[in-house]
Amino acid sequence: MKVAILAGGAGTRLAEETDVRPKPMVEIGGMPILWHIMMHYYHYGHREFAIALGYKGEYIKRWFADYCSLNGSMTLHVQTGGVKRHDTSAPPWSVDLVETGQTTLTGGRIKRLIAWMGGGPFMLTWGDGLSDVNLHKLLAFHKSHGKLATMTAVRPPARYGHIEFDGDRVVEFTEKPQTAEGWINGAFFVLEPGVDDYIDGDDVMFEHAPLQRLAADGQLMAFRHESFWQCMDTLREKHILQKIWDSGQAPWKMWSER
Predict the structure, then answer these.
(1) Would the keyword Transferase turn up in this protein's UniProt record (predicted)?
(2) Burial class (CB in 10 A: 0-12, 13-18, 19+), 215
């Protein structure tokens, strides 16, 4: 099953980083968050990707070109210009880098990517969020209900510490837990090609009318994920992810080092 990733937005709330590169190229642990997302999918056996480009899309193209050509050892035949690569550690991915417009909204980008999905169901996520969601269980859930769309529903991390009282006495304090109530769209979708009928064009936010119409028609199901999920909308959230990575206990890092 192919994986679609939206990587075309401007990331204005992360302007300190995105003045020079698109948000999915902001690095965690020396590698773009986009790479971390793809490694998560690869851990579950997914090797084919289609990435929707927009803002500074050329940066993503250059990064993948360099990643392919510079990974591992190589022998250069200077006179002929020939290159022989050895012992590459790059994963065996096939990556479609698809121009979807500078100002196209999320629904429009998805609509343009559907033509690259091979006519079958596909996975979709945003290029700025990490999770330890079990993709095998997500896919099995999607297949079990037969609807057009599955959304991964998450409980977002609380921004501040949580206090529980007995009168004025603090009986429990938890530093920045996940919220105990309320579910939000955590991306990590599984979609059938029929969602195309719910997206009218480039100027449509997938999170608005398409998802609302899918829900109204009984075609949107939620896979509830209770474990780790964190988006990267701000510099503060980037620092949170970097701190987690530096701890050596990043929940989304399921793959083994070579």
Answers:
(1) yes
(2) middle
- Distance in angstroms (rounded) separating the CA atoms of residues 156 and 162: 13
pLDDT of residue 173: 65
- pTM, two decimal places: 0.89
Tokens 């206990």 -> residue: 249
What is the residue range of 19's domain? Answer: 3-69+88-246
Mean pLDDT of 74-90: 83
Establish if 82 belongs to a structural domain.
Answer: no
- Indicate the DSSP class of residue 256: P
CATH number of the domain where residue 92 is located = 3.90.550.10
Query: pLDDT band at 178, cuts 50/70/90?
Result: low
CA distance 224 to 209: 22
How many domains are there within the chain?
A: 1
Helix H or strand E encompassing 214: helix 209-216
**Secondary structure of residue 52 in the 3-state scheme:** strand
List the single range of 28-37, 77-86, 112-121, 123-132 with lowest mean pLDDT: 77-86
Looking from the CA of 41 toward its CB, the CA atoms found within 13 Å total 30
Residue 77 lies in a domain: no
CA 33 to CA 25: how far, in whole Å? Answer: 6
**How many helices and strands in the chain, by DSSP H and E?**
7, 16
Residue with the bigger pLDDT between 84 and 35: it is 35
E strand residue ranges, the chain: 3-7, 27-28, 31-32, 48-53, 73-77, 82-86, 94-99, 122-126, 129-131, 149-154, 162-166, 169-174, 184-185, 189-191, 220-225, 229-231
